[in-house]
Amino acid sequence: MRPLFKVFHNDETMEKSIGKLRKDGVRDEDIYVLSHDNDHERRSRKETDANKIGVSETGVGTALKNVFRSKGDTLRSKMKEIGFEADKADELEEELDKGKSLLVVTNQERVEF
Hints:
52% helix, alpha+beta, General stress protein, coiled coil, three-stranded antiparallel sheet
């Protein structure tokens, strides 16, 4: 099952969308936030209790490789590990380069952001 996603320009809008997802029954462990800025990503996850794509999602091998990769390469790698096609991961990483945030939902056939 492919992950579902939405790109956000505004953190407040993203927080409202995460609240709606939870209200609609999406489990916390299926909600992820990605950003090019590590501090911004941490703050967003802390404020929304969203998950990060870590070792349990990518595996130890990929997690170790990500230590030595650029931020863009790491983001693309994480997106691919949770189900994005390479082309889509490249496209979304370009959006993150522009300062946007990515909200990803896994294990769902359909959601309303």
